[in-house]
Design goal:
It comes from Dyadobacter chenwenxiniae. The chain is an alpha+beta fold. The protein has 20 helices and 30 strands. 33% of the residues lie in helices and 24% in strands. The strands form nine sheets. Strands 4, 5, 6, 7, 12, 20 and 21 form a seven-stranded mixed β-sheet that branches. A hairpin with a 5-residue loop joins strand 26 and strand 27.
């Protein structure tokens, strides 16, 4: 017992001794820190004076120094947004000694008048002199607007700005301005910066502000009249840390095609606004997101992100989840189940349900109900299979990811509104109206996510717009695609609705956008606008959602055109005539651009043309043939091509370019090919350099409305 007591007392003494030692060390550390502060303030010098002297004379303060904001890049590493330095030019009029000031003031005043032009040389000199003798003023801003970095480098060679032992006083106040090389393309998606706070307030600039903004530094600044802060020297206490760079999934080629097609249709239809989203099926990577709002007659700008935040009744595009729910619930063969839609109008509990076709469709199979977008047909199918169990239908909508946001990494996504039977707004009509896209709210992106899942064999993919965040050392955060591990519906259901979506374009409400080169699958949607609580005839929210090529889907897309102003018949206001053509124009251009989705085209040219050595204008080729002593170029054609046969003989072929069919461009230089195609009204894209070796549209075919062609040069 005695040993235990003594051991406890010894431990207590050891702890007390240790505490005293730590206390003395902390005391000594505090004295060292205090001594360091005294030394920095009263003994460390800057330009021959202590910081205390500077502070007493010039009101020095510690202030934050903003960091360089990170850049935003496209999927192919093209710069979408960056920060460029700009400078205010000023002069501390009291720094230079009297002799230097007297000898150089005239030259400085002359340079200021010549370069800035805000005053005459005499005016600048008088103003500088007044500040120099003033008791209250010393710092003069020499130009009201900022200058560029190149201008700054020139000014650094001027008197008072060049480093001189007896001179000095020239100052540059640095500010950063955000610059978007592709503006106004994707302006709302990329986002903007609040000029006061320097923080992102919309789009990707806001969503990834914490990554982009970096960390501010700390350094001495001089407070001068007007509340301006002038950095003192170049050495900072804490260096600012540049922001991270954001690498997006956007492709500016796709964005350009989407905006051109959308803007053209909006101007033509005098619509209120429009939206286009293009997404890669397998990954959910968004290649383009265009949002255009009417800002005057024929003028459209990006001011609101309808793709992410624009909720509305989707209309008939919602017939896809309804049909999927019916197929999942009943396992029906949609080609064998029929309903009688009558003459195009039926009464349901005192309310009219109408189809767009005058006179109605009569008896339709379930497949035809979908392809022809019959509201009556959908109502009758719902009445037959779901009216007795509405909760089953609602559970399918949840399974299809329609009741929650997509979770895209952008701020401002508006949640979908899909009411259930606990809602006060639920009524005896709700199940019918919901089945074809009314009494709800969906964003275009949420609708597209469902269509993309169908294209992806039933596997739902989260839409994504940022793939990497990088710092100076490399990739800091990689955002992988998110794909659900279980399909949203059975393979049988997915197969059936894929066939229906193709049928809509082949023979249904969007047969006007069918293409001979590739198959589009999709669905039209035309919803009456809810204005002051009333669905208003003649005011429509039109859409087309789908994917292509239908046999091997690579891209999904959705087009929204709000309140088009038609002329003549009402069908000019419907989605098939408004939104669907925009989808096809965008898809055509992507198909021509992306060689990976094009079907191989059998060479239709004669065998000898595979070895084309020369092609061009006949008069130019005549000169070459005479110099090389070749067979003369045949007369009667503006263009010709030559192939080498055995024993070095030349075989000339006439190239007829006046036909309305696609011309044979093989062997032509880009200059000649571009001249011919643009005169025929084609939109030309190309890759490579040299002469044409491949063309996306085969020679001799009728292009119809497909006037986009890709040339491969070598």
């Amino acid at each position: 017992m005695k040993n235990d007591v003594e051991s406890g007392q010894n431990n207590k003494k050891a702890l007390i001794a240790r505490a005293r030692t730590v206390g003395w060390l902390l005391f000594l550390l505090a004295i060292a820190v205090f001594g360091k502060l005294i030394r920095v303030q009263y003994y460390d010098e800057f330009k021959g004076k202590t910081w205390a002297e500077y502070s007493a004379k010039n009101d020095l303060k510690i202030d934050t120094i903003p960091a360089m904001r990170g850049n935003i890049y496209s999927v192919d590493d093209r710069l979408l947004a960056t920060s460029l330095p700009y400078y205010y030019v000023g002069l501390d009029t009291k720094v230079a000694d009297s002799a230097y000031f007297r000898n150089n003031i005239d030259e400085l005043s002359s340079l200021l008048a010549k370069s800035f032009g805000e005053h005459t040389a005499a005016g600048y000199k008088n103003k500088i002199m007044r500040y120099r003798v003033s008791k209250n003023k010393r710092y003069l801003r020499l130009k009201s607007r900022q200058i560029s970095h190149l201008d700054r480098e020139k000014i650094k060679k001027w008197p008072f700005f060049v480093k001189n032992r007896k001179g000095g006083g020239g100052k540059f106040e640095t500010i950063y301005k955000r610059y978007k090389p592709f503006s106004p393309m994707a302006d709302r998606t990329i986002g903007g910066i609040d000029p006061k706070s320097g923080r992102g307030y919309i789009g990707l600039e806001s969503s990834f502000d914490k990554n982009l903004e970096g960390k501010a530094g700390i350094g001495w600044v001089e407070m001068v009249e007007g509340g301006m802060k002038i950095p003192v020297g170049d050495a900072l206490n804490v260096q600012p840390e540049a922001g991270r760079d954001i690498y997006t999934t956007l492709d500016m080629n796709f964005q350009d095609r989407a905006e051109i097609a959308l803007r053209r249709k909006l101007i033509e239809s005098k619509a209120n606004y429009g939206c286009v989203i293009i997404m890669e099926v397998a990954t959910g990577e968004i290649r383009a997101m265009a949002n255009l709002t009417k800002r005057g007659e024929g003028k459209y700008e990006e001011v609101f992100n309808y793709a992410v935040a624009g909720g509305a009744d989707p209309g008939s595009t919602f017939k896809l989840p309804t049909m999927m729910a019916l197929l999942e619930e009943t396992k029906m063969n949609p080609d064998q189940i029929t309903v009688n839609t009558g003459a195009g109008s039926v009464r349901f509990r005192g309310t009219s349900i109408n189809d767009s076709k005058r006179g109605g469709h009569g008896v339709l199979t379930a497949t035809q109900v979908f392809e022809k977008s019959s509201n009556i047909g959908v109502h009758l199918l719902m009445q037959r299979y779901f009216f007795s169990k509405p909760d089953a239908y609602l559970s399918y909508l949840k399974k299809f990811h329609l009741t929650t946001p997509t979770g895209i990494h952008m701020k401002g996504e508006k949640p979908p509104y899909i009411k259930d039977r606990t809602s006060k707004q639920w009524s005896a009509y709700s199940l019918t109206f919901m089945s074809y896209g009314y009494e709800m709210s969906m964003t275009p992106l949420q609708t597209l996510a469902l269509y993309n899942a169908v294209a992806n064999d039933g596997y739902w993919v989260r839409p994504m717009i940022v793939r990497e965040i990088r710092n100076a050392e490399g990739v800091e955060d990689k955002i992988p695609p998110y794909v659900e591990d279980k399909p949203i519906a059975s393979p049988e259901t997915i197969k059936k609705v894929k066939q229906m979506l193709e049928g809509v374009v082949k023979a249904g409400s969007a047969k006007n956008i069918s293409s001979e080169l590739y198959q589009i699958a999709g669905k039209t949607g035309t919803a009456q606008k809810l204005i002051n609580g009333i669905y208003t005839p003649g005011k429509y929210y039109t859409s087309f959602a789908g994917y292509f090529p239908a046999d091997k889907p690579k891209y999904s897309a959705i087009v929204i055109i709000d309140t088009p102003q038609g002329s003549g018949a009402n069908y000019t206001l419907y989605a098939g005539s408004v939104a669907a053509p925009v989808f096809k124009e965008v898809a055509d251009r992507i198909y021509a651009y992306d060689m990976s989705i094009q079907k191989p085209i059998k060479d239709s040219l004669p065998e000898v043309s595979k070895d084309v050595k020369w092609a061009g204008r006949s008069e130019d080729l005549n000169v070459i043939s005479k110099e090389l002593k070749l067979t003369p170029v045949p007369a009667g054609s503006e263009y010709a091509a030559a192939s080498l046969l055995k024993k070095g003989k030349t075989n000339w072929q006439k190239r007829h370019m006046n036909s309305p069919d696609v011309p044979d461009l093989q062997g032509l230089a880009m200059r000649d090919a571009l001249y011919i195609l643009e005169n025929k009204g084609f939109n030309v894209t190309f890759k490579g350099s040299g002469k044409v070796v491949e063309q996306s549209l085969p020679p001799g075919t009728n292009p119809g409305s497909n006037k986009t062609i890709l040339l491969t040069l070598q």
